[in-house]
Amino acid sequence: MTYDLIVIGGGPGGYVAAIRAAQLGMNAAVVEREPQLGGTCLRVGCIPSKALLESSHKFEVARHELGVHGIQVGGVALDLATMMKRKADVVGTLAKGIDALLAKNKVARLRGTGRLAGAGKVEVTAADGGVTAVEAPRIILAVGSRAVVLPGVEVDGRLVCTSTEALSFDTVPAHLVVIGGGYIGLELGSVWRRLGSQVTVLEYADRILTGIDAEIASEALTLFKKQGLDIRLGVKVKSARAADGGCIVECEGQEPIRCDRVLAATGRAPATDGLGLETVGIQVDRRGCIPVDGHFRTTAPGVWAIGDCIPGPMLAHRAEEDGVACVDGMAGRWVHVDYGLVPAVVFTHPEIAAVGRTEEQLVADGVAFKKGVFPFRANGRARTINDTAGKVKVLADAATDRVLGIHVIGPAAGDLIGEAAAAMNFGATAEDIARVCHAHPTLPEALKEAALAVDGRAIHA
Fold first, then answer.
1. What percent of the chain clears pLDDT 90, i.e. is strictly above it?
2. What residues contact residue 118 under an 8 Å CB cut-off, 6+ apart?
3. How far apart are CA 134 and CA 128, in angstroms?
4. Residue 239 lies in a domain
5. Are residues 390 and 327 in the same domain?
């Protein structure tokens, strides 16, 4: 079989690239071994974790926070099986939606594991071991990433787990140890803490959420500890293993920790092993990433790569942008994804979101800047929904007032960052944002006030 384009990987970058190719008149095919399209993000990542975060948050609100609204609730109980079924239903519905999109755009679905087999050739190995050879003058590698496990951590998929298994526990662990204080560990740690687990987070660094603005991360640490997360910094984990029906975690210079389950959440790495890169002469870097140029072209003619398997932020929305830009480039159209303006969101409560540069990065680079901060406790909408923790922080160039970074911790931060990203992509100044009329009472007014605060003009603080 011959196609105009073959995409190896049916995740957010891969299926989007194939759809865009079909829109431009190409006969495209997607190779994916999993029954459901959507990649890690949809199957065992972004979507199921957000479903559990929402359900567990509602459970916590029902138990502890409705009284202030004059709502008296008794006998609130957890039905974990129903919660998990809802999560699975959300995933299943969205996966079927992707199938429908491929059918609508006449994109072929090739079931099996894809592997390069020389110039313009891909081998697809089905679950029964059968191999089908397909060809195309254009091949996109969109194979995503996999969980990284520290040496000494013996993952068994039952008691010592990665995020995949932690999304589907059939009981609430009495004590869950999370190795890693990044967004995956804190999100899933928050889920199980809300549902009744004692959660201990072990982080090797001297702070959580490395990469997030330090001021925001510090406030998050304080809030998470108040919520009941036992977060320990500067801890080096030597080993973690199942033992006597539970787990033992050994850390350097400390007593072993006995717990019921362990979640290894120490990052991700490109899933480029076994891809047949050697058949076309592609060499990965030390992290396993596939090097590409500004048009996502690899060193092999006719082979492109996008998403988590190339350098850049490992985020689903970034992969989607890569996919569209990559295919547009094939068609002679505009190719550009500004990785400096890819927003990031941590879906804890409060949410944390950011776009652009952090205060630490600006200081390190010697960039003169001004800072405006506005707390949600002074925002009318935050008061009415009883969700006042956090702040909005705007960083602007001291000379030009152009916005360099916006960082939010608070209610609906993941939604608020959309306006920030749009403004920064259009080169907005803090004054530009400050002069936009924002509806009242709404949470985005906090962004306007933070922009005013850059020049010391905040009205409500």
1. 100
2. 279, 280
3. 18
4. yes
5. no
The answer to whether residue 440 is catalytic is: yes
**432's tokens:** 């530009």
Q: Which of 69, 295, 336, 440 is catalytic?
A: 440
Report the chain's mean pLDDT, rounded to a whole number.
98
Best CA proximity match to 248, nearest among 170, 156, 148: 156
Residues above pLDDT 70, as percent of the chain: 100
Give the burial class of 313: count Cβ atoms within 10 A of its Cβ; 0-12 exposed, 13-18 middle, 19 or more buried.
Answer: middle
| Domain, as residue range, for 172 | 160-266
163 token code pair: 């995020």
191 close to 178: Cβ distance less than 8 angstroms: no
Task: Sort strands 351-356 and 403-410 into parallel, antiparallel or unpaired.
Answer: antiparallel
Strands 5-8 and 108-111: unpaired
CB 18 within 8 A of CB 28: yes
Q: Is residue 393 within 8 Å of residue 421, measured between CB atoms?
A: no
pLDDT of residue 314: 97
Return the C-alpha torsion angle 90, 9, 134, 21, nearest 10: 80
Question: With DSSP H G I counted as helix, E B as strand and the rest as coil, what are the percentages for the chain, rounded to 5?
Answer: 35, 25, 40
CA-based nearest residue to 405, from 376, 447, 346: 447
What is the tens place of the pLDDT at every residue in 398-419?
A: 999 999 999 999 999 999 999 9
**CA dist., res. 188 & res. 224, Å (int):** 13
Cβ within 8 Å of residue 417, ≥6 positions away: 343, 345, 353, 354, 355, 406, 408
Indicate if 20 and 136 belong to the same structural domain. Answer: yes
**Overall number of domains in the chain:** 3
